[in-house]
Amino acid sequence: MKTPTKGPVFLRFLIVSLFVFYMLLPIVATYLFSLATRWDRSIMPEGYTWEAYQTAFNLSYFRITLKNSLILSIASCLVSFIIIVPTVYLTQINFRKFRPLLDLLMIIPFAIPTVVLALSYVRVYTFQPITRSPFLLIMATVVYTMPFMYRSVSNSVDAVDISVLTEASQSLGGDLWNTLTKVIMPNIYPGILSGMLLVFATVFADFTLAKLITGAHFKTFPMLLVEQTQIDGNVAAALSVISFTLAWGISMVLLWFSSKASKSKKAQPSDKAYIGK
Questions:
Q1: Which end of the chain is more exposed for a tag (fewer CB within 10 A), N or C?
Q2: Which residues, in sequence order, are CB contacts of 258 under 8 Å at separation 6+?
Q3: At what angle do helices 62-93 and 162-171 cross, to 10 degrees?
Q4: pLDDT tens per residue, range 137-181
């Protein structure tokens, strides 16, 4: 077996390093700018202070907008989960001929600008109590992020033999609910988690849909951030850091739970161990 030469190894290392640098530079710069006292006359900030964070935490709408964004993101994840998982499973089992149509429908949200989507919802749902309500905003965010959830779940479903698992469950007396919740979902858990992470991150950072649908009636964290960009750049940078850190922290917690569940599942003895006992 030939060992790789130093040239290609160095080239791969250089490419990866440049990519990591390209991805991390804006994040590091935002962190530094949120702490900088002044940063316009030198390569690095002239000083550091926590004043921008103190101002951000003391904003009157800080806690309200943060709570609203969390509620909106979590609700969108739950609704997407309830809609997508059963739909993908039933399509794979009973309506396989409609799979290409479903794949096509999931591409449509990518082709519709968020401004058009928001204005369409506002024009169609003009009756109370739905019009310009948080419920309407959740409906719009679910449609907007549906491709992320669908593609993640669909790929996980394709990776396992759904038909065999369903037949095995039904042969043991399992109904549709038990088959879906106790057999199918544990096997496609990574795809569900990946989809929910994508939905959560996208909805938490959304500005256009919330601004056009609910406006000041249901103010979200990105709306507060955009307002502060016109007032104080350091405070806006601090809010960006808080938003990114919170989303990153929640993602790490979910991934930790996922890895813990996977390890516990592998640690359980297989059914084959009980054959003959």
A1: N
A2: 189, 190, 193
A3: 80
A4: 999 999 999 999 999 999 988 888 888 888 888 888 888 888 888
Mean pLDDT taken over the chain: 85
Q: Hunting for tokens 């991150």 — which residue is that?
A: 201
Short-list 258, 142, 254, CA closest to 189: 258
Q: Fill in the DSSP letter of residue 160.
A: S
Can you name the residues that pair with 248 across neighbouring β-strands? none
Residues of the chain with CATH 1.10.3720.10: 61-264
Of 109, 125, 128, the closest CA to residue 117 belongs to 109
Residues sharing a CB contact under 8 Å with residue 130, sequence separation 6 or more, in sequence order: 136
Angle at 81 between CA 77 and CA 85, to 5 degrees: 160
> Distance between CA 149 and CA 205 in Å, rounded?
17
* CATH fold for domain 61-264: MetI-like fold (1.10.3720)
Contact 5, 13 (CB under 8 A): no
pLDDT band (50, 70, 90) for residue 76:
very high
User: Predicted confidence band at 74 (pLDDT cuts at 50, 70, 90)?
Assistant: very high
Residue 194 has which token pair?
């990946």
Looking up tokens 């549906």, which residue turns up? Answer: 146
- Contact between 98 and 91 under an 8 Å Cβ cutoff? The reply is yes
The answer to whether the CB of 133 falls within 8 A of the CB of 68 is no
Closest by CA position to 220, among listed 241, 235, 234, 205: 205
